[in-house]
Amino acid sequence: MDTLIFEIGLAIALITIVGLVSNKLRFSVIPFYILIGMAVGPHAPHFGVIDLRFIESGVFIDFMGRIGVLFLLFYLGLEFSVTRLLKSGKSIVVGGLCYIGINFVSGLLLGWLMGFPLKETMVICGIMTSSSTAIVAKVLVDLKRTANPETEIIMGMIMFDDLFIAVHISILSGLVLSGDSSFWSVLLTSLSALIFILLFLFIGRRFIPFIDKGLNIKSAELFLLVIISALFLTAGFSETFHVAEAIGALMVGMVLAESSHVKRIEHYILPFRDLFGAIFFFSFGLTIDPTSLFGAVWVALLGVLLTIIGNMLSGYIAGRVAGISGRASMNIGFTLVSRGEFSIIMANIGKMGGLLPVVQSFAVLYVLILAVLGPLLTKESERIYGLFGKPRQRPKPKPKQQHKEM
């Protein structure tokens, strides 16, 4: 029996089972993927041919997880239109800036309270600032709120946040992974990464007419090969300029989002995103020893509290600027609470950079709690508003008595 193939099949079977469970419960699947990965791994039992430790396949599963990150970020880029963001209203820009500023400051506050070094604090700032686009989009569809007046603001703020996180990840790569120690070296590395991103997007958009002609390929096989070649080559080349491979994938998606072939690309890429994306979350769980999480419980709980308060405040500001109701403003804040893919990517950057293990433990607990709590708060936002935000009813004035003229 081929042990490697059997273990890969076993991993996919476990992912499938928890996926079915989460679908039955109508809940976000991301925490289920992470939890099943944590439940098995190096510390798991071994029953004959069924080896839940995934020793032989561990490296391969980790590699498939890296591919999952590329497909997740590439697909996100396809949904992210720079043109749409530039045309966004004042409420989205103000709300996005408030959301980023409040959550980033919350990360700085948490790092200062816990006495973390600069690098660890910057990673935590990124973890706490990045909302989960996947969870937010799924919740809006499941709750049938896509036509609500606040939904456009929510999606605009997510786009704004994703753009910031792309820049932040490039800076983190220069700070944590490049090995530079001086301020000027880190600054130069980060600036070169930012310039590469901006130039790539600027030149890519100018080449859209030529890209559209080049993608006029009838063969589905060749069309898919061209897209995946562009994705992997750009992602790999990006690291030359200290831009994380995930951000390279995001940039390719953002350029192709302006193409007339974007719907066809999404159709072919979606199955790869779902399969490898699920393996990414599972592989992240495999690296976590559940016994190591207890030291980060209070840090995670404090981070969750700061995030909920910060999101309610930023949602209220965005809603007030847009002129929508207090109920809709609360929906904005609660919907953006969920954390997921970007937070885990930044935790992995911290792991690769040899930062304190508490950062990864914090990320696991923080993401798990908010991936569960976010959809619940969003679902019950109207009830919560009714408890705390309902204005007092003013007594109706008594009707004036009319006097008959004599």
Structure explained in plain terms:
There is one protein chain. The protein is an all-alpha fold and 406 residues long. The chain has one domain: Up-down Bundle (Na+/H+ antiporter like fold), CATH 1.20.1530.20. The protein has helices at 3-25, 30-39, 58-79, 82-86, 90-114, 118-129, 133-142, 151-177, 183-206, 208-214, 220-238, 245-256, 262-286, 297-322, 326-335, 341-352, 357-379, 381-388, and strands at residues 46-47, 50-51. Strands 1-2 form a two-stranded antiparallel ribbon. β1 (46-47) and β2 form a beta hairpin. α3 runs antiparallel to α13, α6 runs antiparallel to α16 (341-352) and α11 (220-238) packs across α12 (245-256). The longest helix is centred in the middle third of the chain and has 27 residues, at 151-177. It is globular.
Instruction: Identify the strand order in the major beta sheet.
Output: 1-2
Distance from N terminus to C terminus (CA atoms, Å) equals: 108 Å
What is the SS-derived class? mainly alpha
**At the third CATH level, what is the topology name?**
Na+/H+ antiporter like fold
Most strands sheet: 2 strands, antiparallel
Number of domains: 1
Query: Helix-strand pattern, N to C?
Result: HHEEHHHHHHHHHHHHHHHH
Computed CA radius of gyration, to the nearest angstrom = 23 Å
Pfam families: Na_H_Exchanger
Keywords: Membrane, Transmembrane, Transmembrane helix, Transport
Organism: Paenibacillus dendritiformis C454
Protein name: Sodium/hydrogen exchanger
